[in-house]
């Protein structure tokens, strides 16, 4: 198992490796496998990319993203301008049911609300606005519409876990109740943890996923 100092060095190296980031403006602290990111970046998508980069590092148990978004003067936009850009971005994405989603913008922070049929539509809506100029943050409150629940949801999820997580699938426990899935167990990386959650969301009828899987390097 890596020490905190080794983990910190690996995270810093991963941030340096990410071409969309200026890692010199990002500080990294690690305690008991939990990574805290701080500092400043010039866009929200860079803050998001920094978090993704940290999660890719083997041994990271969790990430606290305290990075501040400081927009350069050339990227400053009014909330009205951002709102128009958000509407256009949602309408232009074929994966997003834009007619079911409402967006509000306050001080550069975008909040998405509404109801969709699938989690991939929920994620696509957030992806569509994350990279817009002037956006300082995104809160995704979109919910998943309740659909007829097949009786074999648990079996479907467990089968998908064997395909995407492979070796660690046997260490993951799945519980399902009325469209709610609870995942427990241990995997070797944050990537596998996210893959397990994605597998659960892919099952028909799932409206909520509680991911209690822990990282055991």
Characterization of the model:
Strand 5 and strand 6 form a beta hairpin. The protein contains 6 helices and 12 strands. The chain has 3 domains: 4-69, Histidine-containing Protein, Chain: A (2-Layer Sandwich); 74-144, Histidine-containing Protein, Chain: A (2-Layer Sandwich), CATH 3.30.1340; 153-215, Fe-S cluster assembly (FSCA) (GMP Synthetase, Chain A, domain 3). It is flat. The chain is 35% helix and 28% strand. It is an alpha/beta fold and 217 residues long. The strands form 3 sheets. Strands 1, 2, 3 and 4 form a 4-stranded mixed beta sheet that branches.
The tally of strands reads 12
Alpha-beta classification: alpha/beta
Q: What percent of the residues sit in helical stretches (DSSP H or I)? A: 25-40%
Number of helices: 6
Which H/E pattern describes the elements? HEEHEEHEEHEEHEEHEE
The span between the termini is 6 Å
- How would you characterize the largest beta sheet? 4 strands, mixed
Question: For the CA atoms, what is the radius of gyration?
Answer: 19 Å
The CATH architecture of the largest domain can be given as 2-Layer Sandwich
Stretches with pLDDT under 50, minimum 5 residues = none
Q: How would you state the average pLDDT, rounded?
A: 90
Strand content: 25-35%
> CATH class of the largest domain, anyone?
Alpha Beta
């Amino acid at each position: 198992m890596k020490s905190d100092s080794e983990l910190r060095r690996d995270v810093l190296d991963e941030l340096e490796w990410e071409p969309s980031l200026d890692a010199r403006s990002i500080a990294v602290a690690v305690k008991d496998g939990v990574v805290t990111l701080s500092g400043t970046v010039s866009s929200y998508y860079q803050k998001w990319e920094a978090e993704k980069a940290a999660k890719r590092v083997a041994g990271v148990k969790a990430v606290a993203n305290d990075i501040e978004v400081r927009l350069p003067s050339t990227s400053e936009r009014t909330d009205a301008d951002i709102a128009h850009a958000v509407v256009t971005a949602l309408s232009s994405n074929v994966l997003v049911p834009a007619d079911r989603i409402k967006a509000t913008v306050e001080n550069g922070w975008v909040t998405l609300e509404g109801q969709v049929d699938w989690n991939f539509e929920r994620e696509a809506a957030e992806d569509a606005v994350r990279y817009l100029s002037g956006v300082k943050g995104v809160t995704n409150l979109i919910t998943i519409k309740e659909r007829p629940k097949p009786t074999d949801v648990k079996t479907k999820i467990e089968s998908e876990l064997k395909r995407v997580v492979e070796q660690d699938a046997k260490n993951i426990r799945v519980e399902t109740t009325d469209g709610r899935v609870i995942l427990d167990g241990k995997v070797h990386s944050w990537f596998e943890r996210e893959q397990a959650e994605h597998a659960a969301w892919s099952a028909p009828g799932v409206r909520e996923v509680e991911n209690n899987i822990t990282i055991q390097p």
